Amino acid sequence: MEFTVHFHDQMIEAKLSGRLEFTDHDRLRDIVSIIGDKGTNRFVLNLEGLQFIDSAGLGMILILQEEAEQRGVKLVVRRPQGDVRRSIDLAKIGEIVDIEY
Amino acid sequence: MTITLPHTATPRLVIPSLSVPADAVAAARDRFGDALPDDPGGDAVVALLANGADRGALGAALEGNFSHIVELTEDGDANGLWLGAPSLESAFFLSLTTPTAFSAQPALLICDTLLDRGALTPERRSPVELCLHEAVANGVVHGNLGISSSAKDQPEGYRLFSQLVNEQLRDPACRRRRLEIFVRWNRDELMMSISDEGPGFDVERLRLEPDGSARSGRGFMFMRALSDGLTIGAGGRCTSLRFEV
């Protein structure tokens, strides 16, 4: 999994690409470290470029949600596509995390 | 069985079916249960992979139409359940060490192979790959590496989990353990069984519908939802999946 980071006013957007799976466990701390960076209060996880997510990847999204809450930051998941959207919907992640389709 | 690979392009081993020890056949049947057909099959044509085989080597072996693909351990050991699994048309057996099963994306490569062989359609690939991937992940992380899902449940548990994964991947005992996958198909069905060498778990306590906020447990939920049959046997060490294709 790769990601790029963009700053807009009070918002940070992390755009993920490739596959988010159990082997990416080391990358999670990299994303956690930028939540709330530069005084931002909104963190967008853009999944438009993500092609595959497994149950471990979904768990990482929930961990990011918790970390964001602890920092007083609003987390939003944006534009999951195809199989990624199917997995997110199947696991009912939308009941826990705000998702913008 | 310890093997030293010759310096040839595609090390292979032919094992006549009649020479397979009875206890090897029994061990495979004990682990895989009904997933192994009664047909003793023909002579096995085994591709031997050097320890630490990467995706390229594994992909090339899968393209080679071998009945068995076996990665050696760091000690040159090839022992595994694969020896007792039959060599059948429309089937293959993959036996990997834990680090390779972790890093080489075997689920993706197996599905590429099944597509090439006409055993899987592009439309059915996605759910099949996800289910196989989840079974492999469980077998590697919770089975062979022995890491419990509960490691993530404490505050900043993800850091502990990551640390444990890295530590266990360096542990020689974990590195020797095998993740073994048996795949067979016919015109109507695709069947896969994934076996690990971990401690197993109490299958009766498995929740197939984790609550929405749980940090883990969705793997089996996906497998049950996206396959046409899910069986967990051998005390949690063998997951069998069936798909109508």
Mind explaining what this structure looks like?
Chain A is of the alpha/beta class. Chain A is built from three helices and five strands. A five-stranded mixed sheet of chain A has the order 1-2-3-4-5. In chain A, strand 1 and strand 2 (11-20) form a beta hairpin. The longest helix of chain A has 16 residues, at 55-70. The radius of gyration of chain A is 12 Å and the shape is globular. In chain B, helix 4 (106-116) packs antiparallel against helix 5 (122-144). Chain B contains eight helices and eight strands; from the N terminus they run βαβαββαααααββαββ. By secondary structure, chain B is of the alpha+beta class. The interface between A and B is medium-sized, with 26 and 27 residues.
Quick synopsis:
The complex is a heterodimer of chains A (101) and B (245). By secondary structure, chain A is of the alpha/beta class. Chain A contains 3 helices and 5 strands.
